[in-house]
Structures
1.
Amino acid sequence: MLIKKIKRRIYNLFHPIQGELWCLHRVLNEKSVFDENKDLEISPDYLETKIKHYKANNFDFISIDDVYSKRLSEFRYCWQKKFINITFDDGFEDIYNNAYPILKKYNIPFTIYLSTDFVDRKPLIWWLVLERIVLTKENVVLSSGVIYTCPDIISKRSVFKQLCDLIYNEPDNPADTFRRLFSNYVSYFEEKTANTLTWEQILEMCDSGFCTIGSHTVTHPVLTRQQENEVRREIEESKRIIEKKLQQEVLHFSYPYSFWNEQVQDIVLESGYKTAAMGYGGSCRYNKDNVYKLPRVYLVEEST
Ligand SMILES: [Zn+2]
């Protein structure tokens, strides 16, 4: 026990925490009733409270470019100021409506990792469509005829979780699996579940000087389940689309669903990105983290 403690102390001494990349998706007041979706949501008040707390505790809020060029490679003692960069994945419109005003108010740099198919479109956000199906149906009937009965909220929560697990455990991409399993509900596919950002909103946020846009692929697939040419297309094409729209280089990437392997990482590196982030892993430590597998702190708002 004592040896473990000493080893930990020595490790911390040589690999001090340099800071945190916060991993967020949505900022809104109306939360999902299902934990799997609610975990992607925080309220504007919670975001503001967190920012105030960390500012008061002497953290530097800096851009992802500064994290990469100044902080990751620099040794800083544990008593020196740590960094925070706030990041959002996917590209929901509530970033613009609810988070951006707060970030502007406190002069906070932030990163949005965009899935380019989400912008200016109505993408099939399968986890939100599934939520709508489970909430409105007493019996969810899969394409195969298998029935999940969920007349009340308790059973709906359980069925939602089971169906998410079922989708993730299939070998295909989750969106394709969803389409295949839920062919009885195609009319739901067309319903608007959430607004996504427009290029106009993205350009405005970039012009403010606070926002850096990174890539989160084109279609938000599980990259580790795709053919190499498909992986390349997702990683290169999204970079090209954003660069063309913003007229600036895109240097940062995050892996959809946090699925990572070395082959995918190599393609990210070869495509000219400087960093790539996972959706978990905690704080960034000196001389420990692979910049193509950066850990992030997943911010979850506890229910009150
Ligand atoms: Zn994502």
Note: The pocket of zinc ion is lined by residues 89-90, 216, 220, 256 (CB under 6 Å).
2.
Amino acid sequence: MQLDIQHLQQNYAQAKPALNDINLTLHSGIIGLLGPNGAGKSSLMRILATLSQPSAGNVLWNGVDVLRKPAVLRRELGYLPQSFGVYDNLSAWEFLHYLAGLKGLTNQQAKTKINELLHMLNLADVAKQPLGSFSGGMKQRVGIAQALLNDPKLLIVDEPTVGLDPQERARFRDLLSDMSGDRIIILSTHIVSDVESIADNIAMLREGELLAYAKPESLLAGLRHAVWQCTVPKVQVAAMAQQFCISQSVRQADGMQLRIVSHESPCAGAKNIPPTLEDVFLYYCQSSQSESVTHAQEVAA
Ligand SMILES: Nc1ncnc2c1ncn2[C@@H]1O[C@H](COP(=O)(O)OP(=O)(O)O)[C@@H](O)[C@H]1O
Ligand SMILES: [Mg+2]
């Protein structure tokens, strides 16, 4: 199984392209597409889901040109869009049955598959209840169920954890992890913890540019010896933020304890600490040094 993305370009009306010369070859496993809002994640996913045409470039599914022959991929595609609307008056079962029909499943195939998915997604008990009565997490599970109706070889889920509480988020991660195997799963998010434990590979996107594509371990290895901790007087924090990428600041009795991503020691007495993926994300995604303060998390000690 192979998805080739070649020189993909998406230009909307604004000056800066939403996607600029994206090149990637994906194989089975979970790919975390990580980037801040506006990075181009949804634009990329809509093209891969054959819902929009790029301005230039190619997408090949097992060697077949997807832009010319979208039907070949559509048969093997499951897609959960970023905003997934449901019909509040339909029950989960009716909704899935309706979509199964659109996807070309026979009545018998649909019944079997829907029952299987409802059990897998822990929705069997509420299958006959109207979707309007469902929580965000339950609706999201219905969204996943519809994406899995045709047992897709390419599963694309766009920011699936938005609106989920921490427990539902964890459950969702486990679910995707269980489903991986002989398929390509692409999961987009702007939240590092959504992907750090489950992604086999991470693609970092910012302002339409692919900044990195690597295994989480390699991304972390790239920042080994580049994350520092030091405590400075509060008045110095603004000046430090101008100069360095600060990934966290913690208020302490004797000043601010800063976590800084820098290839050089940021100040006297700074101590090297192990990087996290959050540091990596910040390192790649801050668009200018002065913005690091807004990205940085301030934690009360
Ligand atoms: N249909 C569209 N028409 C015009 N501009 C768009 C459209 N979709 C996205 N954009 C712009 O393209 C950029 C990338 O957006 P998007 O792909 O939604 O990013 P993300 O999903 O990472 O938040 C943004 O600047 C956004 O405003
Ligand atoms: Mg998006």
Note: Residues 107-120 form the longest helix (14 residues).
